[in-house]
Design brief:
By secondary structure, this protein is an alpha+beta fold. The chain has helices spanning 2-15, 51-59, 65-74, 120-128, 281-284, 287-299, 393-397; strands at residues 34-46, 80-94, 102-118, 137-139, 143-160, 165-191, 197-208, 221-236, 239-255, 260-271, 302-304, 307-311, 314-321, 326-328, 330-335, 342-347, 350-353, 357-367, 371-380, 384-391, 403-415. The chain has a 14-stranded antiparallel β-barrel.
Length: 417
């Protein structure tokens, strides 16, 4: 009973912080056989930007006025969030000891995380120019962008007790491949009545790792991470259930001394500029003079030095029905400390077609978007296990109304030592 009260309190705390559901690592599956598998997870979602707009933005050379206006009208007046994460690699659990309750864990993954917050005013001036705002002062603050890519090399140990309790700990070295951060909490843009003068004020803090040292496994920083999980099986309503708490990618990284930092806190004015439309910006702007002005702003406070950052990890809590046949159920919550996603709570109704094959529906709310739905399937034999999950189904069906895409899967092979 004490353990369950602790678990419930953890879930309640999780609901107060931040989130997207993640596919559990291969090494969390406990059995009397060793397991090795390929693991892949990728997810992106947005509260304001739709799939139709993002697809056309990245694939088309021209964005129509109607397309831009449709997207603009769907944006939140306060904050529009977009975020994504991917992880691909090799993971496993080995049982080299005579005591099969103990196992060794390993994980080698390539991962990236990015998120952004965009104000409606900043979107408007970017995609429509400043002509619609003649005589107005726009608040263009509240914009934020960050990106991190790293490789993770982890080793650990796990224990399974006779009472159905399993727990494991993984410690990892992190190679920081690339990272960057732009924070613009405040700023404004004024366009004169005649539209020929721009005045802008901005407060910006930013950094970017060495742009001359890019590519897979390049070394621009180093850090450490901790992963751990705790699960317990129990009987309830004549069925077997499992409660699981998983913490992943909790760690820090120090970017190398060649990381470039920028700080801007100034007001600038340009005369003779009218940004009617982003599509003919080059023809209307003295690009050289504007580039020189922006460069002068960026160079006013620029230096190189190390940067310490907390990596945005996961916390996920689930209760799932295990074993048996027929209808199944589950629920959970996921959140990400050090990010601005909302908590993601979800229900998992499903059906188990015997011991080998099962499917489930995911109905959730939160994360970087609002309502989200998904489908998942699993197939197990004594030696092989397959997991497949697709989420943000609503964004695939209604791309003009929702934004997001999630695909995850793993292939596991079990063997005896």
């Amino acid at each position: 009973m004490k353990q369950w009260w602790m678990f419930i309190m953890l879930v309640l705390v999780g609901l107060g912080v931040q989130a997207q559901r993640v596919l559990l690592p291969v090494y969390t599956v406990q059995d009397t056989l060793s397991t090795v598998g390929l693991y892949g997870y990728g997810s992106a979602a947005s509260s304001g930007l739709t799939n139709r707009f993002l697809f056309n933005l990245t694939q088309s050379d021209f964005l129509s006025q109607d397309m831009r206006m449709e997207q603009y009208n769907r944006l939140n007046d306060e904050q529009n969030r977009v975020g994504g994460h991917y992880s691909v690699g090799l993971q496993g659990r080995l049982l080299p000891f005579s005591d099969k309750s103990w196992s060794l864990l390993f994980s080698f993954t390539d991962e990236a995380f990015g998120e952004a917050s965009l104000s409606k005013e900043a979107f408007g001036v970017t995609f429509f120019g400043n002509k619609p705002y003649v005589g107005d002062t726009l608040n263009i603050g509240g914009n934020y962008l960050r990106f991190t890519r790293f490789q993770k090399f982890g080793f650990g140990a796990a224990k399974r007790t006779d009472e159905g309790v399993s727990y494991g700990l993984l410690l990892s070295f992190v190679n920081g491949e690339a990272g960057g951060n732009i924070n613009m909490p405040g700023g404004w843009l004024y366009t004169s009545e005649r539209g020929d003068t721009l005045s802008a004020s901005a407060g910006v803090n930013a950094f970017v790792t060495d742009t001359g040292n890019t590519g897979f496994m390049r070394h621009n920083g180093a850090g450490a991470m901790v992963d751990l999980y705790l699960s317990q099986e129990f009987e309830f309503l004549q069925r077997r259930w499992e409660a699981r708490a998983t913490i992943m990618n909790m760690g820090v990284i120090q970017w190398r001394p060649n990381t470039t930092h920028y700080r801007i806190d100034s007001t600038a004015q340009w005369t003779g500029i009218r940004l009617d439309d982003i599509n003919n910006l080059e023809a209307q702007v003295n690009a050289v003079a504007l580039e020189d002005s922006i460069a002068a702003l960026l160079n006013q406070d620029q230096w190189r030095g190390p940067e310490n950052r907390i990596l945005p990890g996961w916390m996920q809590f689930e209760v799932n029905q295990v074993g048996g046949t027929g209808f199944t159920g589950g629920l959970g919550v996921t959140f990400r400390p050090e990010s601005f996603a909302y908590p993601y709570g979800y229900l998992l109704p499903g059906y188990r077609f015997g011991d080998r094959f099962a499917m489930e529906l995911e109905l959730g709310y939160g994360g970087y978007a609002g309502f989200q739905s998904g489908l998942a399937a699993r197939f197990d034999t004594r030696q092989w296990a397959f997991r497949l999950r697709a989420a943000n189904v609503e964004a695939a069906i209604l791309p003009g109304s929702f934004g997001g895409l999630t695909l995850a899967g793993s292939v596991q092979y079990s063997f005896g030592l």
